[in-house]
Design a protein that fits this description.
The chain is α/β, with parallel strands linked by helices. It folds into two domains: about 220 residues, Spore Coat Polysaccharide Biosynthesis Protein SpsA, Chain A (Alpha-Beta Complex); about 70 residues. Helix content is about 45%, strand content about 20%. The protein is globular, with a radius of gyration of 19 Å.
């Protein structure tokens, strides 16, 4: 059976970004359908704009009320019908090779539960942007074959050492995923929680080094907002502790040790403190250091 690829786009605000995301998805000739799920946002005109495009692959749905990010992500699985599903963030965009790469990976790895690729980082205006965090992530990936199959204890250990999966690039195989979804208890680490859970459950994730996705880093993004509020780090500490416990139960001592050490989180916090110090923001630097010391 030839698997069909659906692109679902959860949307809440910034219609200008949505239009870029939709256009990039429709430009993929091998995409079966593009579904926009509007999470009760206040911006008007998105539905009319989509209808004016006149593409039969397009579908628009609107939540009756604002459900929030994670419930809307999960609802995308119910609103789409392809055997493969990618959740394209409404402020990101697909590069021209994305769909063909996912279908190629899916055909070559019929047992994989998820597929992913590398991403180009762009800024609010769509221009290339340097991001230290994204530049460092590939260093945690093993120097294995391309694509890399992430599974077993070695796969989990690598993920928890430094989450090198650019999670928005993930394409899920519906049949293998089954009823598993993003856990609504989380607001920031729901993607890493799901990928680590898949590996702990015995599934595999296939990652290509090719760049086929453009990830937008900008001040309005959820990651930026929740990093500054420290919600992101609160959740990361809790998640890493939980993964360490489950890995230990499975007898994966090396993975449990890496996850329980939480080194990547602590290094990120130290980087934030040093960055604030270099900017002469001494009070902010002290705040980040104090937070780090509280989680030794």
């Amino acid at each position: 059976m030839i698997e069909r690829l659906s692109i679902a786009i959860p949307f809440h605000r910034r219609r200008d970004y949505l239009e870029i995301a939709v256009t990039s998805a429709l430009a993929q000739s091998s995409v079966f359908e593009v579904v926009v799920l509007d999470d009760g946002g206040i911006e008007q005109g998105a539905e009319a704009w989509l209808e004016d495009l006149g593409d039969p692959r397009l579908a628009y749905h609107r939540n009756p009320e604002n459900l929030g990010m994670v419930p809307t992500w999960n609802a995308c699985f119910e609103r789409s019908s392809g055997e493969l599903l990618t959740l394209l963030h409404a402020d990101d965009q697909l590069l021209p090779s994305y769909a063909s790469l996912m279908l190629e990976l899916a055909a070559a790895h019929p047992q994989a539960t998820a597929l992913c690729c590398n991403a180009t980082i762009i800024d609010a205006d769509g221009k290339p942007r340097f991001s230290l965090a994204d530049a460092v992530k590939p260093l945690f990936r093993s120097r294995g074959p391309d694509p890399l199959v992430i599974d077993g204890e070695a796969g989990l250990r690598a993920l928890m050492a430094g989450n090198f999966i650019m999670c928005p690039t993930l394409c899920y195989r519906r049949a293998a995923l089954g009823a598993r979804r993003f856990d609504p208890r989380w607001r920031q680490v729901q993607d890493l929680e799901l990928t680590s859970r898949l590996v702990l459950d015995g599934d595999s994730i296939v990652c290509s080094r090719q760049r086929a996705y453009a990830y937008r880093r900008h001040p309005e993004g959820a990651t930026a907002v929740q990093s500054e509020s420290r919600l992101r780090f609160d959740e990361e500490f809790a998640l890493f502790e939980g993964v360490a416990s489950r890995a230990d139960e499975r007898g994966w001592s090396a993975a449990a040790r890496v996850s329980g050490g939480m080194r990547v989180i602590k290094l990120h916090l130290l980087y934030r403190a040093l960055r604030e110090l270099l900017r002469l923001r001494f009070a902010s630097a002290r705040g980040w250091l104090r937070y780090l010391l509280d989680h030794r």
